[in-house]
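Example 9 (inverse folding). The structure is encoded as follows.
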């Protein structure tokens, strides 16, 4: 009786083991089958988070130049252009096996795309969200070529002359002076000077330091004046810009057309008046 019971227990254990292994194989085969079924084939690719409409068709980038028109109120790429860059395989690739790294690299290779988020939405959708670089100035390099400049100080794409942009232009700036120049522009904006007296250009002189071309309102036509800031703007920009704001307001209210403003003399500011004033 004991021998029979032992044989029965052993048979039961073998049977349970066989059934467990069979079930595991069946489960694995089921998972593989479902994962490779048409149910999870990529069919839809969405671009999400674009805040505004694309540029007009006439201003779309050309394949030859890879230029992009960038009005300040529009996104530099539309959804169709992003999909063309991403090249997500549809109709043939399973969502489980789809590698996102290659898609991300293709998108980040475009000069206007700063960041990418890609997600899988089961059963058949890939969602793409991009962060665009935002130009805040234009940089003229050593050979005279013009590039858009972002807040990180990165010159990332050639200027498209059809864009009619009004960004300030940085001229003859060594790399180590680009970020200080951008901080100056930020301080100029925080002081509220960019509303009435926008900066047209900034030029770096190795001996004199920073020179800024500024426009300010006058009755007949805007005044344009060259402001010598020297190197003092790095030490106390708020105080210097506050004094400069008073000078520009005085020139505007009195209808004075100035030729040059010397704001690199500490607390004293000297104004050279144009002869026609």
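The amino acid assigned to each position is listed next.
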């Amino acid at each position: 009786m004991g021998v029979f019971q032992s044989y029965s227990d052993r048979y039961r254990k073998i049977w349970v083991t066989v059934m467990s292994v069979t079930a595991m194989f069946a489960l694995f085969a089921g998972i593989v089958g479902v994962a490779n079924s048409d149910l999870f084939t990529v069919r839809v690719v969405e671009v999400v988070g674009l805040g505004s409409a694309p540029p007009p068709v006439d201003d779309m980038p050309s394949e030859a130049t890879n230029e992009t028109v960038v009005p300040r109120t529009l996104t530099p790429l539309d959804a169709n252009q992003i999909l063309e860059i991403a090249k997500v395989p549809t109709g043939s690739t399973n969502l489980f096996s789809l590698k996102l790294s290659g898609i991300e690299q293709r998108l980040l290779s475009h000069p206007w795309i700063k960041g990418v988020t890609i997600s899988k939405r089961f059963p058949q959708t890939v969602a793409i969200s991009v962060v665009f670089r935002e130009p805040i100035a234009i940089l003229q390099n050593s050979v005279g070529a013009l590039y858009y400049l972002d807040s990180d100080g990165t010159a990332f794409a050639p200027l498209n002359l059809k864009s009619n942009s009004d960004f300030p232009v940085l001229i003859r700036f060594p790399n180590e002076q680009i970020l200080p120049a951008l901080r100056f522009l930020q301080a100029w904006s925080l002081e509220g000077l960019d509303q009435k007296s926008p900066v047209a250009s900034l030029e770096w002189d190795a001996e004199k330091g920073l020179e800024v071309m500024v426009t300010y309102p006058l009755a007949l036509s805007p005044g344009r004046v060259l402001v010598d800031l020297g190197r003092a703007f790095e030490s106390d920009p708020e105080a210097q810009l506050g004094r400069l704001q008073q000078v520009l307001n005085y020139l505007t209210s009195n209808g004075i057309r100035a030729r040059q403003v010397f704001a690199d003399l500490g607390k004293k500011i000297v104004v050279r008046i144009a002869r026609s004033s």
